[in-house]
Please model this.
Amino acid sequence: MTRSSYSMLSVEEALEVTLAQTKPLAPEHRSLAMVRGAILAADIAAQEPLPPFPASTMDGYAVVAADGPGDYPLVGEVSAGALAEFSVEPGTVAYITTGAPLPAGADAVVMVEETERLEMGAGAPLVRIKERLQAGTNVRPIGIDVQAGQTVLAAGERLDAAEVGLLATAGFVDIPVFPRPKVAVLSTGDELVEPGEPLGPGQIRDSNRAMLVAAIYAAGGEPIDLGISGDTQEALEARVQDGLARADILLTSGGVSMGELDLVKPLLEHAGTVHFGRVRMKPGKPVTFATADVEGGRRLVFGLPGNPVSSLVTFYLFVVPALRKMAGWKEPGLRQVQARLAQPLPLDAYRPEYHRATLRWDDGQACFVASSTGIQASSRLLSMRTANALLALPQREGVLAAGECVEALLIGEI
Amino acid sequence: MTRSSYSMLSVEEALEVTLAQTKPLAPEHRSLAMVRGAILAADIAAQEPLPPFPASTMDGYAVVAADGPGDYPLVGEVSAGALAEFSVEPGTVAYITTGAPLPAGADAVVMVEETERLEMGAGAPLVRIKERLQAGTNVRPIGIDVQAGQTVLAAGERLDAAEVGLLATAGFVDIPVFPRPKVAVLSTGDELVEPGEPLGPGQIRDSNRAMLVAAIYAAGGEPIDLGISGDTQEALEARVQDGLARADILLTSGGVSMGELDLVKPLLEHAGTVHFGRVRMKPGKPVTFATADVEGGRRLVFGLPGNPVSSLVTFYLFVVPALRKMAGWKEPGLRQVQARLAQPLPLDAYRPEYHRATLRWDDGQACFVASSTGIQASSRLLSMRTANALLALPQREGVLAAGECVEALLIGEI
Model:
C-alpha cells in the first residue's frame, strides 16, 4: 500500500474505527491498596449488614424509652468494640459511647447533655434523665446504611476514594478489576537526542517521549519507554517487535508523514493491519492506526505525528479513548462541555481544528470561558501549555466571534 | 481546654485559619521522569532557540526562491539529524526531509508533490520545480517556536504532559519543584478491624484509612499508613508522635466527637496548638485542626470525624486545599462551578450542608446538572459513591426546587 492510497477519514470515523478494534482487557484480581482509579469488573455485594448491630450515634445513656424522664440506677457501661455483658431492664440505664452496640433491653440513647450523674454515697450511682424520647432515637438500626446482600458497587464503576472505602466496609480485599493497559512509547528520528544531552549540529531534543509517558500515566496507563530509534528499517522493526511483545498499545512518535525516511507506515502494514493513515483534522493529519496480532493477543498501534502538538492532540483524541476502553470504561470518550470564546478565533476552511485553550468557570456568566493558548503551530508546544481543553472548531471559512459558544473536549483538570 | 470551649467557625473561617497556618514545602530537584503533576518552583528559560536551525516543514527540495520554476541540477540530499556539507547555489536544488536543516544558500522548500525527478543518463540528475514561491516558504526559521532565553514555564505552573514536553525541549532534566506532601493516616477506635479480617461481636471494618489513602494519592500527596490505634491514651500518643516525625500532615480518623473516650482533641492540645475544634457544617461538625512544631518543622494535624462521609467531606474541604498549598499551588481551593438541581433538595436550618452529587454536563441546557446520591446520612458511605461534587447548600429552612442553580465544589472528574 502506498501512502496516497489512505483515504481521509473524519475524526468521528477514525474514532469509531479505533474503538471497534479495541476490547477491554481480561479482568484480574488486585489487592485493596492497588485498585485506586481502576474500573470494577464485577458487582460487589455486602456480606454483612452495616451496622452489624444496633449502634449508638451519641455518647450518653442507653435507656428504655417508655421509662421517660426520672432518676435511674446505672447498671453498666458499654463502649465501641465490645458487646455489653448485661441488659438494660426497664427502670435502669447504661452508659454508652458513640458507635457502641446498644445493650439488650435498651431501645434508645439519651445524649449526655440531657442527663446528670447524681453521685451517691454507696450502691449504684443514679443518672437523671431529663428528656422524653421515642424508641429508636439516637440509634442506627442493623443494616440502615447497608443491608446484607445489597450491591454496594456495580461492575463498570470507577474506584475512587469513596468506592475504595465501600470495598473496605464490605470486607473485600481481593478485587476483580480491569488492569491498567501497558503502553509502550517509541520515538523515531535520527535528529533526536535525549533531553539531558547537548545538541549537536542539526539535532533537536526528544520532547515527545517524556511528554507521552506523562500523558499515559495521567490517562491511567502503565508506560513502557522504548527509547529513540534511528531512521533505519532494521532498528525500527526490532523496537516495534519489542513493543508489541511487551505492551497492549504501542505508540510511535514521528515517521508517519510523507517522506522517503518515513518508515513507520510501511512497517505497520508489514506487521499488522493499518486501519487508517490520514484524518481530516488540524493538527494531526498523518495519524495512523493499526492492529497487530502477536503471541499474547491483539495489540493496538498508533503512529503519532512527530510534531509535539500533533502528537499530544492525537494522543488525547484517539489513544485516550482506546486506553479507557481497554481499562473497562463504559464511556471512554473525552468529556465534553460547552464554552464561550474569550477572543475571536479564525477557522480553517479545509480541516476541523482542535484549538488548545484554557477553560475557567465564570460565575457571573454561569458558563465556561475558553482562552486560546495563542499561536497554534503544530510544532509550537507552548500552545499546549496550561491547556485543559481542545476546542472543536468547525471546518469553514471565517472567524468565530468572541462570546460564541463552542464544544470543548476536556484534556485536563478544570 | 474542654470540649465546649471550642467556638463554632464557619467553613470559610475554618479554611482561612487552615491556610494561614500552611506554608509551601521547600522546593527540591527532581528528575524529568518524576515531576509529573508537581508544581514548578522556578521559571524555566530556554537555553537555545527552537528550532536551533532553519528547518524544513516538508519533504521536498531546498531551493533559492528567486530561481522560480525550471529544471535544476540536484547537488545533494540532507535529512534530519545532520547538517549538509554542501551549499545550494542559485540554479541548483537539494533534496530535504521534514525536520532537516536547510542547507546554506537555500531559502525555501518546494514540497515533493510540486516537483518531478528527471532521470538523466549521466551527470547530476535534474529536478523539475513546478511552483514559484517566496523565500521562507515551508521553512521554520530559527527560534520561531521558542527563542533563546524565553521563559517557557513559570514558577507556580503545574507540570502536566505538555509542560513535561517543554522541559524536555528546553533540555531541563533536573527540575526545581515543590515535593509531594507526605500525609500520614491513623484510624482510632477499639471497634475497628482491618478490612480483610472477620468481624467479631461489636466490631466494624475500618473503611476510612483505605479510603483516605486513595484520596491522598488522588490529591497529589504521598500517604503513610499508620494503621489502627486502640482507644488508649498511650497507644494513641505513640502513633501520633510517629506520624508527626514522618509526615508533613497527620490525619486521624475518629475520636473527635464528644465522648469520654474521644482522646484526640486533648492529645492535640497537649502536642501542639488546636486552631479549631468545631465547624458549622453538615456533615463534619467535629473536625479539628491543630499544628505541632517538631524536629523537622511545623506539622499540620487534622482530626477527622469517624463517620466515613464526614471524614471524606472534611478531607476535601480542608485537607485538600492545605495539601495543595504545601505542594505549591497558587490557587489551592477546590474548583467551583454552578449546577442545576435534578431533583428538589431539603435544606438544613442550622448548618450549611455539603450535599453529595454527581455532575454531568447537559448539552441541551448548556449547564451542569447535579443528581443527588440519595440519603445523606454521615455514616452512609453510599452517598459518596460516584459523587464528583459537593453541593454547597445554604443554611435555611425549606427546600430548593428542581432546576435551581447551586454552587458545586468539584471533588472528582466530571
